[in-house]
Amino acid sequence: MITLSEYGESRIEVKKSVFIGRAVRIRSVSEAEDFIDQARNLYPDARHCCYAWVLSSGTKMQKYSDDGEPSGTAGMPMLSIIEKNDLSDVAVTVTRYFGGVLLGKGGLVRAYSDATIAALEKASPVKTAIGSSFLISCPYDLSEKLIYMLRNKDWQIEDTRYGSEVEIVCVCSKTEEDALIEAVKDKTAGRVIPEKTGEREINCGSLTLF
User: Fold this and answer.
1) Are residues 152 and 170 located together in one domain of the fold?
2) Which of 42, 78, 88, 90 has the largest count of CB atoms under 10 Å?
3) First-last CA distance in the chain
4) Structural domain range at position 177
5) Rounded to the nearest 10 degrees, what angle do helices 140-152 and 177-187 cross at?
């Protein structure tokens, strides 16, 4: 899944009209609605607060609004950018302060699209997957080479605890579970066997919008 890793905001000006874009990850319809209400409360004197959101958790849902702009000039272009980039569980609002100069339909589409793209980019799109978490308990004399090996293979070390043994908390994608287990066993001549502790979503790398 491709989604957002943080909140993003943009601000562009076109012929004295100001467009403020905001983008965030959502996990429910209520979160999307709260995010839109928040934008309206932040800029109560703005002329328009247009939005688009896509929720893919469970049944896919989507919604958009031109909020008084000419039909097809705001909400639909915003939604198209989300869909074109295969983004999921995402909400975007673009608030417009009218500057007194009419932009025409083409100008509005470009402005709302540019504000949306800029906000999404600021929100750091990432690819995510369901990953596996492992606890690796090892003697001190094996810890340094294990840590080096795990990092060299780009498996994420989330925590390292030092007690009677060194405990390494590491996550990998589900497809790499067996590879991680075998790599640790090989590196320690079978003295250390990773213990799977659960599954959760992991980031697989940042992405650039198009």
Assistant:
1) yes
2) 78
3) 17
4) 128-206
5) 140
Mean pLDDT of all residues in the chain? 95
157 and 83 in a single domain? The answer is: no
- Structure confidence by residue, pLDDT tens digits, 187-202: 999 999 999 999 988 8
Tell whether pTM > 0.90.
Answer: no
Q: Residue 187: which CATH number?
A: 3.30.70.240
Hey, CA dihedral for 169, 172, 175, 181, is it positive or negative?
A: negative
Q: In whole angstroms, what separates CA 179 from the centre of its chain?
A: 27
Helix, strand, coil percent content, the chain, rounded in steps of 5 = 35, 40, 30
Own/partner long-range contacts of 173-181 (Cβ < 8 Å, ≥24 apart): 173/129, 173/130, 173/131, 173/132, 173/202, 173/204, 174/129, 174/130, 174/131, 174/132, 174/199, 177/132, 180/134, 180/150, 180/153, 180/155, 181/134
